[in-house]
Amino acid sequence: MRTMGLDVGSKTVGVAVSDALGWTAQGIETVKINEAKEEFGLERIGELIRQYEVTTVVVGFPKNMNNTVGPRGEASQKFAALLEEAHGIPTVLWDERLSTMAAERMLISADVSRKKRKKVIDKMAAVMILQGYLDSKK
């Protein structure tokens, strides 16, 4: 009974999962996608859903600062719908404003090199999205 968190971009999807009790989020991988070619990595994400026995997926929903939904937000809505359709799993859209910036600041403060940050930033953003959701449930 785990929850998965996803940070959806146009080229990658950061993936995090909760522990079995739903208290903490851990980053597990970054899935390469190609939004322009409509290659969304749904097969790999499905494998991870089964492997970790995920029951709910939280998809980061990047709203604009004025609370409107822009192109990235619409892309997240579409991704969530595709995921539900492909794997029959409930999805939750979670406001993720500034999660990538917060992840970047955390990695910089930990003195992670720019090259290494680029490899883990999406996974770290997924952790922050999922942890925010888990904390709201307590």
TrEMBL record:
One of its GO terms (molecular function) is hydrolase activity, acting on ester bonds. Residues 1-103 form the YqgF/RNase H-like domain. Gene3D superfamilies: YqgF/RNase H-like domain (3.30.420.140). Its EC number is 3.1.-.-. Transmembrane segments: none annotated. Could be a nuclease involved in processing of the 5'-end of pre-16S rRNA. Pfam families: RuvX. GO terms for biological process: rRNA 5'-end processing. The keyword Hydrolase applies. This is Putative pre-16S rRNA nuclease. It comes from Planococcus lenghuensis. Belongs to the YqgF HJR family. CDD domains: YqgF (cd16964). Keywords: Cytoplasm, Hydrolase, Nuclease, Ribosome biogenesis. NCBIfam families: RNAse_H_YqgF (TIGR00250).
